[in-house]
Write a structure and sequence with these properties.
single chain; 93 residues; mainly beta; OB fold (Dihydrolipoamide Acetyltransferase, E2P); 7 strands
């Protein structure tokens, strides 16, 4: 599955837990991707990089293209260890 959207939020795992970096991607065109999102997900997709505490360039507001195998995890469409491309970043002053 391929998704295009903006990073809505990121979650950092505490140091005493297994390393995982999680982001929520808002994809307003999710309906066109051919995947019917579960009720309440509103075109949101969770992406999880296992074994990492940070992914360079991935921060709230970044526009990304995500690709990987889609699964349903904890009621939200999720892609683990996705391939990604940063399309643009929000400028900070």
């Amino acid at each position: 599955m391929v998704c295009h959207g903006h990073i809505e939020s990121i979650t950092y795992m505490p140091a005493d837990q297994n390393a995982a970096f999680t982001a929520i991607v808002s994809d307003p065109d999710a309906a066109r991707s051919g995947v019917k999102p579960p009720p309440g997900s509103r075109g949101r997709l969770r992406v999880v990089w296992l074994g990492r505490r940070k992914v360079p360039g991935i921060e709230a507001g970044t526009e990304v293209r995500i690709e990987g195998m889609l699964v349903l995890s904890q009621g939200l469409p999720t892609i683990f260890n996705p391939r990604y491309e940063i399309l643009s970043r929000q400028e900070h002053e």
